[in-house]
Design brief:
With 268 residues, the chain is of the alpha/beta class. The chain has helices at residues 49-60, 79-88, 94-110, 125-136, 191-203, 230-248, 259-262; strands at 7-15, 21-29, 35-41, 64-68, 114-123, 142-146, 178-183, 208-213, 264-267. A hairpin with a 5-residue loop joins strand 1 (7-15) and strand 2 (21-29). The longest helix is centred in the last third of the chain and has 19 residues, at 230-248. The N and C termini lie far apart (37 Å).
């Protein structure tokens, strides 16, 4: 007999930074049993169709997933216009973004069908924000950084009022296992920047896995763009789901291995 499959996907509201009521896209599997949950931090192009499709993909694979609209305050007609407005203003303020993400984490824990374990995943600027959140927020059990640029400081790029510090400055406080997926043809982050991030994680004895893909650049999951790299994307999604199955399942315990045993830098 075929396994039951069902899903609900809908727009909900959460109270973010300063209590602001913001939209969020929630996709969850139906069926018996409690499930792990994920906060999906959308990329700079915004709270768009592609982000919602990925939320549904995670829900199809068993994880209640919420993607808050981190650009909603711009009030424009389209995600693209909101994104342009954010860029013109100097980027998304880290303090506000982290408060919105924390609100999404807290919201997931109130849902009666979740098991209390929460992961985060982010793409492009969202990958940077995942790294920052995993180091500064509470209640995160597993993190996935997908080609997050700006984790490390770059020569000639001074801090801004919106983003006053590089996330790598908080690496000592990384509080959960971190999975990183990167394309070797990417320019932001470049392979050298990924090396720098990895070096710091090693210094602090953190649990992480970095997977790097040849013939893949920035945004290689994006099926609607020329950047899509099918081989890398297929393997990358398998890595993401395995990571969450390991750390977010109802029977997942705290990782008993040492960081040295758990750490791996893999080139696919």
């Amino acid at each position: 007999m075929a396994r039951y499959e069902g899903m609900i996907a809908e727009t909900v509201n959460i109270n973010g930074h300063n209590g602001d009521l913001i939209d969020a896209y929630l996709a969850r599997p139906l069926g018996a049993g409690l499930v792990g949950s994920v906060v999906l931090i959308h990329h700079m192009p915004g709270w768009d169709e592609a982000s919602k499709e990925m939320a549904r993909k995670l829900a199809y694979n068993g994880f209640a997933t919420i993607s808050p609209n981190l650009h909603f305050r711009e009030g424009k007609a389209t995600p693209q216009e909101n994104s342009a407005s954010i860029r013109d203003a100097g980027g998304m303020p880290d303090e506000r973004t982290m408060a919105d993400v924390q609100a999404a984490i807290n919201y997931l824990r109130t849902l009666p069908y979740t098991n209390g374990k929460v992961g985060i995943i982010g793409f492009c600027s969202g990958g940077r924000q995942v790294f920052l959140a995993a180091c500064t927020l509470s209640g995160i059990d597993a993190a996935v950084d997908c080609w997050g640029g700006g984790v490390t400081a770059r020569d000639g790029e001074p801090p801004t009022a919106a983003m006053p510090k590089s996330p790598i400055e908080f690496a000592a406080s990384l509080s959960c296992p971190l999975l990183g997926l990167f394309g070797n043809d990417d320019a932001r982050p470049s392979p050298a920047e990924v090396d720098e991030t990895e070096k710091v994680l090693k210094q602090h004895n953190k649990i992480y896995e970095f997977h790097r893909y040849d013939n893949a650049g920035h945004g290689f999951f994006a099926v609607d763009r020329s950047s899509y790299a099918q081989v890398a994307a297929t393997d990358g999604w398998e890595k993401v789901l395995a990571w969450y199955n390991k750390y977010l399942s109802s029977d997942a315990a705290s990782d008993g291995r040492t960081a040295g045993q758990a750490r791996a830098a893999v080139r696919a």
